[in-house]
Specification:
One of its GO terms (molecular function) is acyltransferase activity, transferring groups other than amino-acyl groups. With 162 residues, this protein is α+β, with helices and mostly antiparallel strands. The protein has a single domain, classed as Aminopeptidase (3-Layer(aba) Sandwich). The chain contains four helices and seven strands, in the order E-H-H-E-E-E-H-E-H-E-E. A seven-stranded mixed sheet has the order 1-2-3-4-5-7-6, with helices on both faces. Helix 1 packs across helix 2. The radius of gyration is 15 Å and the shape is globular.
Length: 162
């Protein structure tokens, strides 16, 4: 396994992994699919903002990714970040998610972040268990704030102090 900075050559693989989750799961509430051009722009914007967008390679292919950005706008939130971590099914249970999150936490901490949030769908029991296992604490449940697949969904906010 190799964790590295995402580049334009990774956009197609990242889009495939992310769009599968968007289309087929309640792990994210959005139904707007990612495009290669949009991801390439996002990779560059993260780097320009001092953040990162990392990919994990397994057997030479992108098997997952993680990134983060400021939790909310404004200078008062500059030390609080929110992350995204998504793996392809072939990467589950191999320690890749942990490795990506460790790298994201290190990068965020080095950039002055104090706190890292994850917004996890309450229907994503594996996502909640994963975050708990790596030291995140559930700090809030927001009832019926997301809507997808013609139903209301709860959002679980999980936080780790870095």
């Amino acid at each position: 396994m190799l964790i590295r900075q995402a580049g334009p050559q990774d956009a197609k693989a990242v889009a495939e992994i992310w769009n599968d989750v968007i289309r087929n799961s309640a792990a994210t509430f959005t139904n707007l699919e990612k495009t290669e051009d949009g991801l390439i722009a996002d990779f560059a914007a993260k780097a320009a903002d001092g953040k990162t967008f990392l990919v994990a390679e397994l057997d030479g292919e992108v098997a997952g990714f993680a990134t983060y950005a400021q939790f909310r706008g404004g200078p008062g939130y500059r030390h609080t970040m929110e992350h995204t971590v998504i793996l392809s099914p072939r990467a589950w249970g191999r320690g890749i998610g942990r490795a990506l999150m460790s790298a994201i936490e290190d990068h965020a901490r080095a950039g002055g972040a104090h706190s890292l949030f994850g917004g996890v769908s309450a229907e994503n029991a594996d996502g909640i268990a994963f975050h708990t296992a790596i030291g995140f604490k559930e700090i809030a449940r927001l009832p019926e704030v997301g809507r997808k697949f013609d139903r209301w969904m709860d959002l679980v906010l999980m936080q780790k102090i870095l």
